[in-house]
Every structure is written in structure tokens, then in C-alpha cells.
């Protein structure tokens, strides 16, 4: 086994799932069609200065209209599963109340189309497109948003719970809570550290209530999951502990153990007394899940900030102008430049961090099956003279991370699958269309799809279960 995670010829266990992932606002477009209500990302992207180049998801990959040929593309790539998200404002345009049948019909067709092609539907209820009406009523810092989410989950369970293979409640609540309500680089762009912690709690509550609602309404036998972006922080122990508390355990402890950790409460005491946590909440949050979804891209190097030098901030986000992605620890921890090669996002490439994360999760939650629900990279790829996209850097990134995943399985980690982010180049949030993560290139002028070398490579993996040469 090579130490640099470049092995090929390694075989994954039978039944291991290979898939790709997208999210509704990033690919669908059709922002004003068939009764879809506005979401916070419509509002945010239309606000000057929030998204690179003024890009919006109004058209995106036009997947809302091209879903059928996109499904053919997935079948051609040999995918065993497709992880997509459902736009809440298509289902319940104002967040609560009237259900929009046209929205349900779209996802129902999508699910049927996947099943017809032998691709398992992995559906996420929330990948950041909150109905604007709910934000106007307070957003995630307001407890009522968790009530609304449970109602929405019941609607979906009844409509699709006979066919969906895996339900995922939330994608990356860390991003929703802290980038959306603390740091402000994501919609709705608020910079309120205390509110971002209330948001984290209400996301946890929404997760637990949605699981209960989905279980009560799904008539098939779906699996249940949540997807978290977990941080691999390295460096000074006390700084690592703080980032682990507010970045990871704020979600894993209530969801998987039914508690909030004392050190997290202490670290954030100057911001909140956590009185938004009511009796019974932790029991509601602590629902069993069949698989924990993990999104992994890179690592962080941290140390305690002494306060007498300008604080370095290189946590992978655009400058926040005063916002914080780390409530309670933002003025205590500093993020140092990362060693090694970087992607076009300026995130460091560290497959050993993925192995470390999987080991940590196995040690903390030995009984919990895991799934890598996102991993991938943006590079400056282009169409070459022969019409192909020769994204050798992405192939190398994927090979090394899949080799790390394979090694984790050898080490006894109960890892069930891997989803590459992303199927298509798409709307990369604050970066608009400037950053391309797809294994399939999208020409945003004419919506042409071109399978990149990485897509061909991934097909080899997905169809054989063996890491290709
Ligand atoms: C995911 O979020 C999203 O789910 C997806 O929609 C998005 O398109 C995709 O990733 C690519 O961005 O501090 O060095 O670890 C990614 C969330 C959180 C990953 C912050 C990178 C910062 C870099 N990101 N993290 S680092």
C-alpha cells in the first residue's frame, strides 16, 4: 500500500454504493416556474455584492427541464445512487400551509426515472433553500421553523416515502447556521453570532422532528440519515477542541447521543445561555439514523490567538467583514495557512484528513454506519482542442480520496458508500458559476454536457468497484 493514497486496483466490498450528488438550487433553475415560491437564495443572489459576478440560480443547469437526459447521463456513468435535494419552496411555496402539487410531481417523476434506471434515490429535504416567508418570520433562529420543517417532512414522506431509498434530513447544518446567520457569506446573510447558535439548535430539532415525521408517513422501507460537514482540525490541542465543539459536536452530540456538551456551552457562554433548548428537545433530536452522511473536502490548521498580532483567517471562506463562522471561538482561535497543494477554492488537498475523520467517527460512534455523501474538487478545467476535458488534477484528487476511503474500510470503518460532488458543474453558492466541481462539464451558454476525464474515470470505478488505473 502506498503512503500517498494513489493506489489503483483496489476493490471495494460488494454492495458499496457509488453515486453522485447535486442540490436543488445549484442545478434546477426554473426559479419562477410551476408555483415555486421564493427562497432565501433567490433573495440573496439577487442582492448586489453577495454572489460573484451577480450570478443567480435562475437557470443554473436547467435541470428542472433537462432532468430526463440528466438521468440518462447518470445511467451512462454507471451510478448506483443519486443524491439530490428537494426545494422546499417548490413543495410548500410559503413554507407552511398549501402544498404545490406541481412541485411534488417533479420530484415524483425524478424518483420514478431513477428507479427505472436502477439508480437509488437519496433525497435530502434541506440543502439551504429556505422559503423566504419563513426567513421573514425569523428563519432558523426562530423555533417555528423547526415546526414548519416537520410539516414539510410529513408531506414528503406521504408523497415519496413509498419509493425513496434514503431520506436525508439536512445537508451541512454547520453552513446553514454559521455561514447563513453568523458569518453572512451564505443566505440569508445575517451576522448574529448568538442567533447562529439558536439556528444550530433549531436545525437539530428540525432534524429529529423530520425523522419522526418521515417514519410516520413513509410507507416503503427507506433508510434515514443526515449529512454533516465535519471538520478535521489540526494543531494546538485547545484550539482543536474548540473547533471540534462548535464545528462538529454541536450536531453529533445531540443527534447521536442526546446531549449538548458542557465545553460547548462554556465556550459560548458570553453569547447565549442556551435557554432556547427546552425540556424534551434533546430526546426529540436523538432519533436513530441508519447512516451518517459525511461531507469532506479538506483540513484546517489552528492555534490559539494571542490577540496581540493581527489574526490570520484562512478557514476557506470569503472575508467576513465582521461575521463569524465559529461563534464563541472566532476571537480565540486562528486558522493558519494550510500546507500542500490547493484546489481552485484554495482548499488544501489532504486525503489523509479523510482517513483521520473516518477513524475518529468509528472511535466515537462504533455502531454508526457511515457514508461519504460529498467529496470532490474545483479546478480550472477547460475544453481542449479534441473536445474533451482532461481534468487530470480532479482524477488524482478522487483517486487519492477513494484510496483513503478504501483504507478506512480495511481498518474496520463501516463505510457504505461514496458520492462525488458533483455530477455537474453548477451554481457554487457565493462563487456563482466561477468554480466548477462537476465530473461532467456544463457550458452555461448552451447547456451542453461534456463528460470530463474524471467522469469517465468514475464510471470505471462505479461499474467495477475497483479503483481504476
Ligand atoms: C458543500 O459545502 C455543499 O454541500 C455543496 O453544496 C457545495 O457545492 C460543495 O460543498 C462545494 O463547496 O475550512 O479548509 O475546510 C462545502 C462546505 C465548508 C467546505 C467550509 C469547505 C471550508 C474549507 N464547506 N469548508 S476548510
Structure description:
This protein starts with 16 loop residues before the first strand and ends in a 5-residue tail after the last helix. With 469 residues, it is of the alpha/beta class. Helix 9 runs parallel beside helix 10 (237-257). The mean pLDDT is 96. The chain is built from 15 helices and 13 strands. Strand 12 and strand 13 form a beta hairpin. The longest helix is centred in the middle third of the chain and has 25 residues, at 193-217. Strands 1-2-3-4-5-7-10-11 form an eight-stranded parallel β-barrel, surrounded by four helices. It has a three-stranded mixed sheet with strand order 6-8-9, covered by helices on one side. It has helices spanning 24-27, 40-45, 63-76, 88-91, 101-116, 132-136, 144-160, 173-183, 193-217, 237-257, 262-267, 281-285, 351-364, 392-410, 453-464, and strands at residues 17-21, 81-85, 120-126, 166-171, 223-229, 233-235, 291-295, 300-304, 333-336, 370-375, 415-421, 440-442, 449-451. Ligand GBH binds next to loops. Its EC number is 3.2.1.21. It holds the Pfam family Glyco_hydro_1. It is an enzyme of class 3 (hydrolase). GO terms for molecular function: beta-glucosidase activity. This is Beta-glucosidase.
Amino acid at each position: 500500500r502506498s503512503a500517498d493514497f494513489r493506489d489503483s486496483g483496489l476493490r471495494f466490498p460488494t454492495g458499496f454504493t457509488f453515486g453522485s450528488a447535486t442540490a436543488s438550487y445549484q442545478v434546477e433553475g426554473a426559479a419562477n416556474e410551476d408555483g415555486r415560491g421564493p427562497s432565501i437564495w433567490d433573495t440573496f443572489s439577487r442582492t448586489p455584492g453577495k454572489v460573484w459576478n451577480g450570478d443567480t440560480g435562475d437557470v443554473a443547469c436547467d435541470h428542472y427541464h433537462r432532468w430526463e437526459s440528466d438521468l440518462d447521463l447518470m445511467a451512462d456513468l454507471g451510478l448506483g445512487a443519486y443524491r439530490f435535494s428537494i426545494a422546499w419552496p417548490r413543495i410548500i411555496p410559503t413554507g407552511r400551509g398549501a402544498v404545490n402539487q406541481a412541485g411534488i410531481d417533479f420530484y415524483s417523476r425524478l424518483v420514478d426515472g431513477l428507479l427505472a434506471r436502477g439508480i437509488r434515490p437519496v433525497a435530502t429535504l434541506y440543502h439551504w433553500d429556505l422559503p423566504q416567508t419563513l426567513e421573514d418570520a425569523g428563519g432558523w433562529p426562530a423555533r417555528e421553523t423547526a415546526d414548519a420543517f416537520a410539516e414539510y417532512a410529513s408531506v414528503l414522506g406521504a408523497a415519496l416515502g413509498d419509493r425513496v431509498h434514503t431520506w436525508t434530513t439536512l445537508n451541512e447544518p454547520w453552513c446553514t447556521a454559521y455561514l447563513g446567520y453568523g458569518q453572512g457569506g451564505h443566505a440569508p446573510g445575517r451576522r448574529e453570532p448568538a442567533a447562529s447558535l439558536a439556528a444550530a439548535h433549531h436545525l437539530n430539532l428540525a432534524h429529529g422532528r423530520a425523522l419522526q415525521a418521515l417514519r410516520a408517513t413513509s410507507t416503503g422501507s427507506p433508510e434515514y440519515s443526515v449529512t454533516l460537514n465535519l471538520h478535521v482540525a489540526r494543531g494546538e490541542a485547545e484550539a482543536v477542541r474548540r473547533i471540534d465543539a462548535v464545528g462538529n459536536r454541536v450536531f453529533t452530540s445531540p443527534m447521536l447521543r442526546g446531549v449538548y456538551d458542557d465545553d460547548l456551552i462554556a465556550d459560548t457562554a458570553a453569547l447565549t445561555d442556551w435557554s432556547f433548548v427546552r425540556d424534551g428537545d434533546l430526546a426529540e433530536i436523538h432519533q436513530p439514523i441508519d447512516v451518517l452522511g459525511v461531507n469532506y473536502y479538506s483540513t484546517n490548521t489552528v492555534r490559539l490567538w494571542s490577540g496581540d498580532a493581527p489574526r490570520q483567517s484562512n478557514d476557506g471562506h470569503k472575508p467576513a467583514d465582521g461575521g463569524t463562522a465559529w461563534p464563541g471561538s472566532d476571537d480565540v482561535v486562528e486558522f493558519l495557512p494550510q500546507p500542500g497543494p490547493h484546489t481552485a477554492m484554495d482548499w488544501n488537498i489532504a486525503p489523509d484528513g479523510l482517513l483521520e475523520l473516518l477513524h475518529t467517527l468509528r472511535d466515537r460512534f462504533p455502531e454508526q454506519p457511515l457514508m461519504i455523501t460529498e467529496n470532490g474538487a474545483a479546478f480550472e478545467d477547460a475544453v481542449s482542442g479534441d473536445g474533451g476535458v482532461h481534468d487530470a488534477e480532479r482524477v488524482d484528487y478522487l483517486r487519492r480520496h477513494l484510496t483513503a476511503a478504501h483504507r478506512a474500510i480495511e481498518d474496520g470503518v463501516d463505510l457504505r458508500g461514496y458520492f462525488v460532488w458533483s455530477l455537474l458543474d453548477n451554481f457554487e453558492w457565493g462563487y456563482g458559476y466561477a468554480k466548477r466541481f462537476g465530473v461532467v462539464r456544463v457550458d452555461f451558454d448552451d447547456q451542453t454536457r461534456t463528460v470530463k476525464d474524471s467522469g469517465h474515470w468514475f464510471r470505471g470505478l462505479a461499474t467495477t468497484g475497483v479503483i481504476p488505473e
